[in-house]
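Minutes, structural biology subgroup

Action item carried over from last meeting: produce the structure token record for Lipopolysaccharide biosynthesis protein (Altererythrobacter rubellus). EB confirmed the sequence was re-checked against the source entry. Recorded below for completeness.
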Amino acid sequence: MKRLWQNIGWLLGGRGFNAVMSLVYLAIATRTLGLEGFGYFAIIIALGQTVTGLANFQTWQFVVRWGANGSGPADATGFAIALDLMSVVMGTVAAAILVWTAQLWLPLPDELLWLTFGYCVISLLSIRTTPTGLLRLRFKFAKATAAEAVQPAIRAAGAILALFFMPNVTGFVLAWAASEVAVALALWIIAARDERIDLSRVSLRRIPSAHPDAWRFVWSTNMSGSLSIAGKQVMILMVGSIGGEALAGGFRVASQLGQALVVLAQTVSKAIYPELVHAKDEALQMARRMANIALIGGFLAVMVALFAGRWGLTAIAGAEFAGFYWAMVILAIAGAVELVGASLESLLVSAGKAHTAFLVRAVPTVLALVLLDAAIDWNGAKGAAMAVLGSSSLAVIGFYVTILNLQQIRIRIDPHPEETVPPPEAATSTPAVLRD
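Output recorded by EB:
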């Protein structure tokens, strides 16, 4: 737990710096581009991150899982790099199709289509989950945080340059693209200093031959990551498709400010996952503690959004974004729910139940996307935010129920309870079914 708190501290420190820099470029971009211009910017960024998120495998989890459990970091890293290369190829094809058909479903003008495709390709080439995994495998969270700080710093500096030299959508997209390239280079350089990158180990066969369940884990985590993207970036794209660029821009601002807790949830998840892999016997107790602490933090954050959110929206984005206050509050509640569920989802994935975690999240995510059109017709941005809240709530309830059921199955099938049931003081250790 001590090391976990240190790692979370480093990650939160980085997120704090990121948050400050984010406010800088968000304020500059919204006030320079206005509601509609920022809407175009939001759609382009969301499309690039959607393509990257859907094509990208969660290779950091593979490096941690197999690098720590027998295969060694060299083979795990080679497998991860091979998957990254496959992601670039698949993602480029997907980007070409989506951008070519964009005018059929997105409110993007002709002059921004090539810019959109270029940003998609740069995002794919800047995939950085493999070096991140190497740093987390060795618990180098301080170095990872230092490298990741490059991204918000470049974005803020780029926004300032765009304000003076290219105050349009293109200028801000270029600033965002430059930050993607810079942070990817920083992470690879720092990771390579601690761990030799052996390109001769790049292979899609070595890890699967040693671990028969490898591809199931790969596709499960990929689909789970895709669902995470669907819950945020695809949601913005669909809001823009249904409600237009102005609604997409306002919803993105509300999402970025209100769902800062989702980023915090991802931070907790990334810090706790390596610990759950290395310390299986205390995994359940660790996850339970983090969920309880997250509940308190989530409540406090929602109170801040409720009482200071309207002022924050106006001060940062300007008066024309103030109408998205209630959408921001609802998204803050959704972020609090995700914060509580982060450790539960990580527990399932670390226990080899990534496919179960995917199914638990898939149903409410798809349901939210299906109902989004009706939700926007009902109450605009607030309706879309309610769809996000419903999806997050159902998913976290599903994680909790699944973990309880796994424990009950363990007890029900145990043929010799007197030999395997832990003593009272160890009753919170991970059940055998979760260590499978």
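Discussion: Residues 354-413 form the longest helix (60 residues).
Next step: EB to file the record with the rest of the batch.
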